[in-house]
Design goal:
- The structure is a single chain.
- This protein is α+β, with helices and mostly antiparallel strands and 122 residues long.
- It has a single domain, classed as endopeptidase fold (from Nostoc punctiforme) (Alpha-Beta Complex), CATH 3.90.1720.
- Helix content is 17%, strand content 33%.
- The strands form 2 sheets. A 6-stranded antiparallel sheet has the order 3-8-4-5-6-7. The chain has a two-stranded antiparallel ribbon with strand order 1-2.
- The protein is globular.
Length: 122
């Protein structure tokens, strides 16, 4: 689940997540869509960021459980996942959802942005 995201390009079906290698945005946007926190699924980190901003998510300074985390670009791709605790996150890493530290030491990425939905405070 959350491994393959097929699109139609030039009348040809293509798995844009490359069998899960690039599925982080698909994973995050699918979970957010299931919970009604965004409008639809997206295959890119930029697409997810655009949607969450339109859906009322706000940038915050410190990670807290439930926040959406965006990591810096490495190998021409940014990365996105969820905060689980002050020290842990979950993201698609690289072919399945995996728990890892907030610094994403498996790929040595720094956090670029943290988003929070105001309804979580209620």
């Amino acid at each position: 689940m959350f491994k393959n995201f097929f699109v139609l390009l030039a009348n040809e079906e293509k798995d844009v997540t490359q069998n899960g290698s690039l599925a982080c945005a698909f994973f995050v946007s699918s979970v957010l869509t299931i919970w009604g926190l965004v409008e639809h699924v997206s295959g890119t980190v930029t697409g997810v960021e655009t949607m969450i901003k339109k859906s009322g998510w706000l940038k915050i300074n410190r990670p807290k459980p439930g926040a959406v985390l965006v990591w810096e670009e490495k190998k021409e791709h940014r990365h996105i996942g969820f905060c689980l605790s002050p020290h842990l996150a979950v993201s698609n890493c690289p072919n399945r959802p995996k728990i890892h530290d907030l610094n994403f030491s498996c790929q040595n990425r720094k956090l670029e942005a943290i988003y929070w939905h105001p309804s979580f405070d209620k």
